[in-house]
Specification:
- By secondary structure, the protein is mostly helical.
- The chain has 7 helices and 2 strands; from the N terminus they run H-H-H-H-E-H-H-E-H.
- It has a two-stranded antiparallel sheet with strand order 1-2.
Length: 205
């Protein structure tokens, strides 16, 4: 049982450190994009359709002379203005929906992560994770057993804290190792519209 408890706490702290490293906001944004694709979100589909229509109409409008074909140009311009207004409205509604979705996911994720950690600590606060040789750790035996584990043992709280520190240090080392040498030099700028998540912006590029 003690080995299972130690491993369970370690795995929980690894997951918590991973979620913190990725970011609750990034996870929520990814889930929002997945949700839109999986459910065929009507507003997201309408926004993409409007954006495509606006870009096509703008291209066609540039090919029409406002002097030689004013009537046709004016008609296309009015249609473009109407589509742009519809696009702004749909984008605004979608942004509100996305904000509510991400806020809910963020709260649920935090509740699960912090709730599980708190529940494990509260339920097992008297349970020793493992015992240590008294002669090795005599000056700090009382500290290792805080808050209420038997003297000479490592408590769940102390073990969780140690696992948390190790996991965070491991994540920091991994992030540094994954950084490209020389920073961002030589990187190719990418337009913010590429790979954007539905509902992130009301502008048409």
């Amino acid at each position: 049982m003690f080995a299972f408890l130690a491993v369970s706490i370690f795995v929980l702290e690894v997951l918590a450190a991973a979620v913190d490293a990725i970011g609750y906001g990034a996870i929520a944004a990814g889930l929002w994009a997945t949700y839109c694709r999986a459910t065929g979100n009507r507003k997201a589909a309408e926004r993409l359709e409007l954006k495509s229509s606006i870009m096509v109409l703008r291209r066609d409008l540039r090919a029409v002379s406002s002097v030689d074909e004013f009537a046709r140009w004016a008609k296309m311009r009015r249609r473009l203005d109407a589509l742009s207004a519809s696009f702004e409205t749909v984008s605004s509604d979608l942004a509100v929906e996305r904000t509510a979705f991400e806020l809910y996911v963020n709260m649920v994720l935090r509740g699960v992560v912090y709730g599980l950690r708190a529940a494990v600590n509260m339920y097992n606060y008297r349970v020793p994770v493992f015992y240590v040789p008294a002669s090795w750790f005599y000056p700090v035996l009382w500290f290792l057993s805080l808050p209420a584990a038997p003297m000479g043992s490592v408590s769940v709280t102390v073990w969780a804290f140690a696992c948390n520190r190790v996991c965070r240090r491991g994540v920091a080392i991994f992030n540094r190792a994954m950084q490209p040498v020389g920073g961002d030099q030589g990187s190719v700028p990418v337009s913010s519209s590429q790979g954007s998540v539905p509902g992130t912006s009301g502008r048409v590029h």
